[in-house]
């Protein structure tokens, strides 16, 4: 009663009113605090045991039910608070929370600036990109490309053992090194995590490149990039078994060189992408 009323009245007044000495009141408070600390310690030990016995995968709800099965009554909010303070969280949940945090801190995706219109008459003005994979006996080889829509030329590409933002950044840098990409160019892609990463966003901003993305789960919104990979696989890779990633990389490089300088394109009136670039530059 005194504890409940002490916010409104002095402790001395309340002790006199209820006939309790101040020392007795504070001794009772200390005893109650010790009792709560003891109960909290016992509960904490039980929570740690239950979490460990779950192979460190149970959340606070399952831990609370596990305690109840042992006859230990505990509020799930208290269990959650104990687990949070001790960092008792499963690796799966930790990855989920980290992913959710990254998504919350990430800006909105860019709008679709192409809307499936892949026509262009200015070299380097509209670019499309994507990532594909090549099987080898060493594991997957990932290939990222940057394709100029005006000429259908692969003006930049990169290969590596992992599909990271660094891979697509290198492909974009190789495209910039060609000297064909002006400031204000548009780069169009799907919603892959690599293309949504802060590193890639910053890289585009550093080169004055505007980002564009099609609708989610709509491969036709990036059909030009998908079309190149289809040709790469059907005309070259599907017929070859690679022992190492290095072998696959050389084959990809060779095909792209052939694609750009020797392969005649029906959509270009049967000339090569390299010839189309010269044609457009001369007409400009």
Structure notes:
With 284 residues, the chain is α/β, with parallel strands linked by helices. It has 2 domains: 2-96, no CATH class; 126-283, Nucleotidyltransferase, domain 5, CATH 3.30.420. Helix content is 50%, strand content 13%. It is built from 11 helices and 5 strands; from the N terminus they run H-H-H-H-H-H-E-E-E-H-E-H-E-H-H-H. The chain has helices spanning 2-5, 11-18, 22-53, 60-69, 76-86, 91-105, 165-177, 198-206, 223-235, 245-261, 273-283, and strands spanning 126-136, 139-148, 153-160, 186-189, 210-213. The protein has a 5-stranded mixed beta sheet, with helices on both faces. Helix 4 packs across helix 5 (76-86) and helix 7 packs parallel to helix 8. It starts with a helix and ends with a helix. The mean pLDDT is 86.
The CATH topology label of the largest domain is Nucleotidyltransferase, domain 5
Strand percentage: 5-15%
In CATH terms, the superfamily of the largest domain is: Ribonuclease H-like superfamily/Ribonuclease H
Question: Spans of 5+ residues with little confidence (pLDDT < 50)?
Answer: none
Radius of gyration: 32 Å
Shape assignment: elongated
* Structural class label: alpha/beta
**Mean of the pLDDT scores?**
86
**What is the end-to-end distance?**
90 Å
- Tally of helical segments: 11
Question: Strand order, biggest sheet?
Answer: 3-2-1-4-5
Tell me about the largest β-sheet.
5 strands, mixed
Oligomer: single chain
């Amino acid at each position: 009663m005194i504890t409940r009323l002490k916010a409104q009245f002095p402790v001395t007044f309340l002790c006199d009113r209820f006939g309790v000495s101040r020392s007795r009141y504070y001794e009772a408070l200390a005893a109650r605090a010790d009792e709560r600390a003891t109960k909290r310690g016992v509960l904490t030990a039980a929570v740690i045991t239950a979490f460990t016995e779950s192979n460190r995968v149970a959340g606070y709800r399952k831990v609370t039910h596990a305690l109840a099965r042992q006859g230990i009554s505990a509020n799930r909010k208290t269990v959650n608070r104990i687990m949070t303070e001790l960092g008792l969280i499963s690796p799966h949940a930790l990855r989920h929370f980290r992913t959710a945090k990254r998504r919350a801190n990430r800006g909105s995706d860019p709008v679709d600036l192409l809307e499936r219109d892949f026509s262009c008459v200015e070299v380097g003005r509209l670019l499309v990109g994507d990532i594909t994979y090549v099987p080898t006996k060493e594991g997957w080889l990932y290939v990222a490309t940057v394709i100029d829509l005006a000429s259908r030329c692969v003006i930049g590409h990169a290969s590596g053992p992992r599909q990271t933002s660094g891979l697509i950044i290198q492909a974009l840098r190789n495209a910039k090194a060609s000297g064909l990409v002006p400031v204000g160019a548009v780069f169009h892609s799907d919603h892959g995590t690599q293309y949504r990463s802060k590193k890639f966003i910053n890289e585009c901003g550093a080169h004055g490149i505007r980002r564009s993305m099609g609708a989610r789960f709509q491969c036709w919104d990036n059909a030009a990039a998908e079309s190149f990979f289809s040709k790469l696989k059907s005309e070259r890779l599907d017929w070859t078994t690679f022992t190492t990633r290095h072998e696959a990389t050389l084959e990809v490089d060779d095909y792209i060189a052939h694609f750009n300088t020797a392969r005649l394109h029906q959509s270009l009136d049967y000339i090569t992408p390299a010839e189309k670039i010269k044609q457009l530059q001369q007409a400009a």
